[in-house]
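Final report, closing paragraph on structural work. Over the funding period we assembled a curated collection of sequence-structure pairs, and we close with a single example.
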Amino acid sequence: MGNVLFTENVAGFYQMRQLYKTMICDSIASEIVQNAPATTLKGTLDFDYSVYAITSSVILRDMQHLYALCKQMMEVSDEEIEAYRKEREQIDKGISESDEATDSIINEIMQLQKNIDESKAKLKLE
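Its predicted structure, as stored:
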């Protein structure tokens, strides 16, 4: 039962994140494109900051609650999550460095192939 509840809480968290993106981020972007509120003093003053602030606060509170529930269910502390985050950053950094190394190898192989092709072309001329 615990796994199901945990999964539901995680799904709820991501649903809240999507809700935030839609109700706040996308809505503000649309408002800016349609009305360009920051181009005039009146537009800036007429912009409804409070609606976005209140909605953001409610969504944030709900996300924090779901996050706390998930931490409690998994019996992990903030310190353990921070340690995991740092370890994950190192892994991601290693992958990035590995990608750069792979790109370098591919470029070297491409240069070698170019040299081979040029040499083959010279042999045909002679």
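The first helix runs from residue 2 to 35. The mean pLDDT is 86. We thank the funder for supporting this effort.
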